[in-house]
Specification:
two-stranded antiparallel sheet; alpha+beta; 165 residues; six-stranded mixed beta sheet
Length: 165
């Protein structure tokens, strides 16, 4: 069933809620990730969504590092507060993938076919890839430029047209 009521995303987890104490904030953000993806797993299309742990980066779970840090050099990314604030968004998007406001399409990245879940209101994207009996959570992030958002929407429209052709 497709829900047509507007999605209400979870509140941001803000550094100010931790009196600006980055160390405590970081621990809290990791605890949410741990609860949402390690202790339990969301399900997409009936199958669990697992996360990659290895190779760890700076002692951090690989997927956590990827969705909370930013930068071109994978091993030298910097913490990104805007990504951390949205730590509740990935599970929320996956849990609500049938909602009309979650656009879904597939694309190729290297040898993998990726599943893209995008909410244009929040400009938030989640990327999964399928395996035989589960999905892997690749990344999630806030789309910060209108150019990138337009590019994603164009990719979605192209995918839809190809599927109906």
């Amino acid at each position: 069933m497709i829900d047509e009521k507007g999605l209400v995303f979870p509140d941001l987890i803000e550094l100010s809620n931790y009196d600006g104490d980055f160390k405590n904030y970081f621990k809290a953000v990791y605890t949410i990730f741990e609860n949402d993806f390690i202790k339990t797993q969301p399900r997409y299309d009936g199958l669990k969504v697992a996360v990659r742990k290895y190779p760890e980066v700076e002692g951090l779970h690989r997927t956590f590092y990827h969705i909370t840090h930013k930068g071109e050099d994978e091993n030298n990314r910097q913490p990104d507060i805007r990504r951390m604030e949205r730590i509740c968004f990935p599970k929320f998007v996956i849990d609500n993938y049938t909602h009309i406001e979650i656009l879904i399409w597939k694309n190729k990245r290297g040898k993998d076919e990726r599943i893209v879940l995008f909410n244009k209101v929040e400009s938030y994207i989640v990327i999964l890839t399928g395996r035989k009996n589960y999905y892997i959570f690749i990344t999630a992030y806030l789309v910060e430029t209108e150019h990138r958002k337009r590019s994603l929407l164009k990719e979605y429209e192209t995918y839809k047209k190809a599927k109906t052709a």
